[in-house]
Amino acid sequence: MASFSASPSSLPHSLLSKKPLVLSCSQSPTPPTPPSNPSSNQNQNQPLQISKEAQPSIQPRPKKRTTVESTDWVASSLTRRFGIGAGLAWVGFLAFGVVSEQIKTRLEVSQQQANTRDVEKEVEVVLPNGIRYYEMKVGGGDMPRRGDLVVLDLKGQILGDNSSETFVDSFSDGRPLALVMGSRPYTKGMCEGVEDVLRSMRAGGKRRVIVPPNLAFGDDGADFGSGVQIPPGAALEYIVQVDKVSIAPA
């Protein structure tokens, strides 16, 4: 068998001059570093700005609407908790309150009618402020106080006027007038003298009243339109009837 042996001197010079390639498993090759961009470094140092269009819009939460519940929920809750008997008892209580109020109103009306009486003979009464009145019917209801609502019928004429022109008449048109005692201005055709007379009347009462000029429309008179005028310094004659006296609404 032939054997070959080679000495280092017999290898080509090109193979001897190259260094062997050594690879290490513990170290990974370092990737090349990209060239730095000055403009990108400058942008990184600046704070991030978001345009108004890109910002999310925050919508306010809608407020919960508070609703006022009726008294029916009381009956339903009582029924669920204590049975149908409790619910029916509550409904009966409400019905009793309504009926009681109606009965009270009817009793007041019947009492007013029972105590109201006609006057056989009219007697003149002169008040310190110069008002004269004649009682035609004595009322049996409540007497108005300051702040009360008075519903009344009114008929007014100019005293001493031969034409006897009527400037207000709620008896004929069927539309009673309303007055809150102590309030201004007055309803059309009403004056301070009428309010003074109402203070001593009761619901259901009726009077014939003579109001002097200083408690009527004074030296200025009044113009109600449609050709109806009160001349300056005129005394007035009214027929006043109180239909109802009640507490004025808030």
UniProtKB/TrEMBL annotation:
Keywords: Chloroplast, Isomerase, Plastid, Rotamase, Thylakoid, Transit peptide. It comes from the Eukaryota. GO terms for molecular function: peptidyl-prolyl cis-trans isomerase activity. It catalyses: [protein]-peptidylproline (omega=180) = [protein]-peptidylproline (omega=0). Residues 21-69 are annotated as: Disordered. Residues 147-246 form the PPIase FKBP-type domain. Residues 38-47 have a biased composition (Low complexity). Its EC number is 5.2.1.8. It is an enzyme of class 5 (isomerase). InterPro entries: Capsid/spike_ssDNA_virus, Chloro_FKBP-type_PPIase, PPIase_dom_sf, PPIase_FKBP_dom. GO terms for cellular component: chloroplast thylakoid lumen. Residues 48-58 have a biased composition (Polar residues). It is found in: Plastid, Chloroplast thylakoid lumen. PPIases accelerate the folding of proteins. It catalyzes the cis-trans isomerization of proline imidic peptide bonds in oligopeptides. Belongs to the FKBP-type PPIase family. This is peptidylprolyl isomerase. It comes from Rhynchospora pubera. The lineage of its organism: Eukaryota, Viridiplantae, Streptophyta, Embryophyta, Tracheophyta.
